[in-house]
Structures are given as C-alpha cells and as structure tokens.
Write a structure and sequence with these properties.
about 325 residues, mainly alpha
C-alpha cells in the first residue's frame, strides 16, 4: 500500500509541474513542462547519486581510510542481504546522514562528520541500518526524483514571479493568468511541492525506521540516535541544505533550521513519534527482531565483528582518545 501511495504522490508531483507550466504558458507550456519533467527523471535515474554526493562535497572512504565505519556498513549490508554500498563521509558539523543511488547495486550511504562525532558506535550502526533500509526499499531513487522535480517546480515558480512582476501587464494568449496570478503561482506552487515531498518522506521514513531496526537487531540503537540527532540538527545549521532545501527530505533528520515556511511543511515525521514506534518494537518477541545478536557476553557478534584471536575484554577509553569509525 505504501508503494502505491508513493507512486500516486510522485504522479501528483509531476502533474503539479505540468499544471504550473500550463498556467505560465498555456497548453504549450504544459507540454514543455511535462517533457522537461520526463527528461529530468531520466537524468536523475542515471546521475542522481553522483550529482548529490558532489553537491555535498562527499569523500568516499574505504577499509584503509575508515576501517571501522566501512566494516560496520559491510556487516549491516550482509544482514540486509544487500550488495556492499559505497561509503562516504561529508565534512559538515551538523549530525546527519542519507542514502542515494538508483538501485541496491549502485547505492551509496553518507554520514557527516558531525554525526560520527556525536553518536557512539551502536547509534551509528542504527543510522546506517536506517539508510540501508532506504536502499533495500529502493526509496533512494524515488526520493532523488522527488527532489529533482520539486527543485524544478521552485525554479519554474521563480520564473513565474519574474514574469508576473515584469511582464504581467501584457496580454498573451499563451498565458491564461495575469501578473497577480503568476505571482500567486510563484508562492503556491513551491508550497504544493513541499506538501507532496512531506507526504512521500513521511511514508518512507517510518518504514525505513522499522526495517533499519530489524537490520541492526536493536530498535533502541536507532531510537537513541534519533534522539541525539533531533537536538543536534537544531543546534548546528546545515548551510548546504538551506541553500538547496529540495534535498532536505533525503536526510534521516530534517537538516533545515525550521525558520519561515519550512516549519509549516516539515518533510520528516515528528521525531518523538518515530522514537515511540521504535520503542514499541522492543516489546515485540525477540525472535522477530534479533537478526543481529550483540550481547555483553559476545561482543564480537555484531556487524563490526572483532577479528578472531583478539581479546573481548575492552579497556576503558576516555572520550578524548576514543578512536572514531572514520579514522
């Protein structure tokens, strides 16, 4: 049912793009807008992952540059029956993460340095499992196409604003609206796009939380991470996301500051509700949840399993000297 709903919402977003084109340029404008939307979807299918990672200045890491993080993702991917995705780190102080790629075979997961510094190892695993759940559900392509179309609607709305302010007084048979109507389009169209983005993201985020908890085997790892992220994203602004808000719904936590219209149309579910759902999962029978058993007695059984022969007794390490997964 969620997939049907997501498909209908994507169709609605494309129809909104065509409607804005029709209001600006009549039937010809609608046809051009729909053709443009189709071209963007094809482009997004093949290039969305590289484009998004390049826009965020993401740096790919491997077993040499970030051995713990890569090993963690590899173990979680194995739990999820997924191919090993590429792993990226983004130099950004705001704690956040996202996944991208047109399919599981061409997927990538990315975490900010802010997230890697703020969360402990279990919480990072919960976040990475959430992102792999998006890959498993093939949400990454849907969310990237949504961002592409929403960004185009915003650009088209800006054009409508310009046309309404400087060309609204002219009578044009191709334009069924006057200057005031064009300005209204410029205001209402992005709001409509944000509403659709919000609906798509909320539909997919709850499902990714659930499957992510199953992948790592511990719902409270993700719940604890979300609690910290909720505070962290409000404390540290993400200027890259602020400059391109159409990509906000791809992150695990809303990266926007919440000022102005963004607070009215949040692209993410309420964090307290997400945490409550994860807490409810802990009351489910253990057999349905524990895909990955990590206990105090067997610390080497997690997705980042300790190599054989290494002592399981870990010496206390102060936070200042603790080795982080990206080191």
């Amino acid at each position: 049912m969620n997939y049907i709903r997501t498909g209908l919402l994507l169709a609605g977003l494309t129809a909104l793009f065509g409607a804005v084109g029709m209001m600006i340029g009549g039937q010809q404008g609608m046809i051009i807008a729909l053709l443009f939307a189709a071209a963007m979807n094809v482009f997004a299918y093949w290039n969305s992952d590289a484009m998004l990672l390049r826009m965020r200045s993401a740096r790919q890491v491997d077993d040499k540059t970030a051995p713990e993080l890569v090993a963690m993702v590899r173990g979680l991917a194995r739990n999820a029956d997924l191919p090993m995705p590429k792993v990226y780190v983004i130099e950004n102080p705001q704690p956040n993460a996202f996944a991208t790629g047109r399919n599981p075979e061409n997927a990538a997961v990315a975490a900010t340095t802010g997230l890697l510094k703020l969360l402990d190892r279990n919480e990072i695993a919960g976040v990475m499992a959430h992102e792999l759940a998006h890959v498993k559900n093939r949400d990454t392509l849907t969310m990237t196409i949504t961002a592409t179309i929403a960004g185009a609607i915003s650009a088209l709305a800006n054009f409508a604003m310009f046309a309404g302010m400087f060309g609204g007084g002219r009578s044009d048979n191709n334009n069924p609206l006057g200057g005031i109507g064009m300005i209204l389009i410029a205001i209402l169209a992005p709001m409509g796009a944000m509403i659709v983005q919000m609906a798509i993201s909320r539909t997919r985020e709850y499902e990714a939380d659930k499957i992510g908890a199953e992948i790592c085997g511990h719902p409270m790892w993700l719940a604890s991470a979300l609690n910290k992220l909720d505070k962290g994203v409000h404390a540290v602004p993400n200027m890259d996301a602020e400059r391109n808000p159409a990509m906000a719904h791809m992150y695990i936590a809303n990266p926007l500051s919440g000022k102005g219209v963004d607070s009215l149309f949040s692209t993410h579910p309420n964090m307290a509700n997400r945490i409550a759902r994860l807490q409810a999962m802990t009351r489910q029978p253990a057999a349905t949840m524990q895909r990955t058993q990590v206990s105090k007695d067997k610390p080497s059984s997690g997705p980042w399993a300790r190599k054989p022969g290494r002592s399981s007794a870990a010496k206390p390490v102060s936070p200042r000297h603790r080795k982080r997964p990206w080191n």
